[in-house]
Amino acid sequence: MSNKSKIFSASAITALAALGLSSANIYAEPKMEKCYGVAKAKMNDCGTKTHSCAAQSKTNGSSSDWLLLPTGICDKLVNGSLNSDSASTSTNKNNKN
After folding, report:
1. Are both 84 and 67 inside the same structural domain?
2. pLDDT of residue 72
3. Separation between Cα atoms, residue 27 and residue 87, nearest integer Å
4. How many angstroms separate the Cα of 19 from the Cα of each of 16, 22, 27, 34, 63?
5. Looking at residue 71, what is its pLDDT?
6. Residue 65 contacts residue 47 (beta carbons within 8 Å)
7. Which of 2, 33, 64, 77 is most buried per CB count within 10 Å?
8. Distance CA 35, CA 68 (A)
9. Residues 21 and 50 grouped into a single domain
């Protein structure tokens, strides 16, 4: 193998490695956060003070039930809150499914 071929091969391998490393973050899992006050009845992700398992919420928009959402989405949702104390339930409290 000539020096030109060796240099070309090394350059190609280095370029491919660099592309692989730079695109690794594209497929990383997004950071998640609990979003209170947005789960529909029987669609919550996990237990709370009133029940111990997912899919046991009794009302839409309960301030104690939550969904696990990508970071930043909760603040964009109606009644969405990052803590259970400030989630509003006034508009959805009596809606059952």
Report:
1. yes
2. 94
3. 32
4. 5, 5, 13, 34, 45
5. 95
6. no
7. 64
8. 6
9. no
- The answer to whether 82 touches 38, Cβ cutoff 8 Å, is no
CB within 8 Å of 82: residues ≥ 6 apart: 33, 34, 35, 36, 74, 75
Domain that holds residue 16: 1-28
Q: Are residues 54 and 69 located together in one domain of the fold?
A: yes
Q: What is the pTM of this model?
A: 0.57
Distance CA 33, CA 42 (A): 19
**Is residue 93 domain-shared with residue 49, that is, in the same domain?**
yes
Would you state the structure tokens that stand for residue 56, as one six-digit string?
């046991």
Same domain, 36 and 18: no
